[in-house]
Design brief:
Blueprint: E1 2-9, E2 12-17, E3 21-22, H1 23-30, H2 35-43, E4 47-49, E5 52-53, E6 60-61, E7 66-70, H3 73-79, E8 84-89, E9 93-98, H4 115-124, E10 133-134, E11 143-149, H5 152-160, H6 162-165, E12 166-176, E13 183-192, E14 198-201, E15 208-219, E16 223-230, H7 237-244, E17 267-275, E18 282-286, H8 291-296
Parallel strand pairs: 11-17
Antiparallel strand pairs: 1-2, 2-7, 3-6, 4-5, 4-7, 8-9, 9-11, 10-11, 12-16, 12-17, 13-14, 13-15, 15-16, 17-18
Amino acid sequence: MRTNSKQTTPLASEYKVQEEQPLLPFLLQAVPKSRNAVKGILSRGQVSVNGEPTTKHDRVLKAGDRVEIMTNQAAKNDSELTGLSIMYEDDSIIVIDKEAGLLSMAAKDKKETTAFSELSTYVKKANRSNRVYIVHRLDRETSGVMLFAKTEEVKKLLQDNWEESVQERGYVALVEGKVRAETGEIVSWLRETRTFKVYSNPTDNGGQKAITRYKRLQASAQFSLLELSLETGRKNQIRVHMEEIGHPVVGDKKYGATTNPIKRLGLHAVKLIIIHPITKEQHTFISDAPSAFYNKSK
């Protein structure tokens, strides 16, 4: 538990540890930011313990330890971002936690704020020639983990080797009604109409094959909370498949929902596991689902 803090220099804040605990919970108390923003501070090497830089969130702190958090330009820029926070960044990729309501990239209105425009501005603050590249998209109303490339070469590496690069994409969905089966798999073929709505067919109709697996986490009479994994990543896949089994995603009027108690779409990209396109190391990114998802399905 933190009991005091002081500004040691214009570039750092120092905190004294009063009792033994892991580093991440300590930082969550010390820094007025979201869990994923704090993880970003750690991953960028801004945290030191007794003068030794560390990126290990599970490092055990002892009473009397001195924790220092450096504030650099990246941290300043991150705090100025709208609708997203940076979970991880290196010379090749940026991983963000996107809020619901933020477009991945511009559609008709080129002036609208998007994840792409926010990150473009962010990287250009370091160097005007810097760019970011969309690797995959999340629907406007879907929140959670999203991956961007920092070079065209990395974008191509990721997209051309998507099935090998992406080890797992996990979602959590709040859906209408009580899902009876504890687990299930949905396989169908998806086609998009001219009105931009995707339809599902149980047999091959020339569309794209889509496979969604789900596990029931908890359920009430009105709502269920599902953990979902995608073997394929088709447009609106989860939303279409949830409608197909009679349990549309909460707030998804386009695909059959009639309720919206959480005032947003009940879909969150909770996990992304990738093989780094350059280092070939495995990285796991976790974004906690909103508490409202759990509260409504109790």
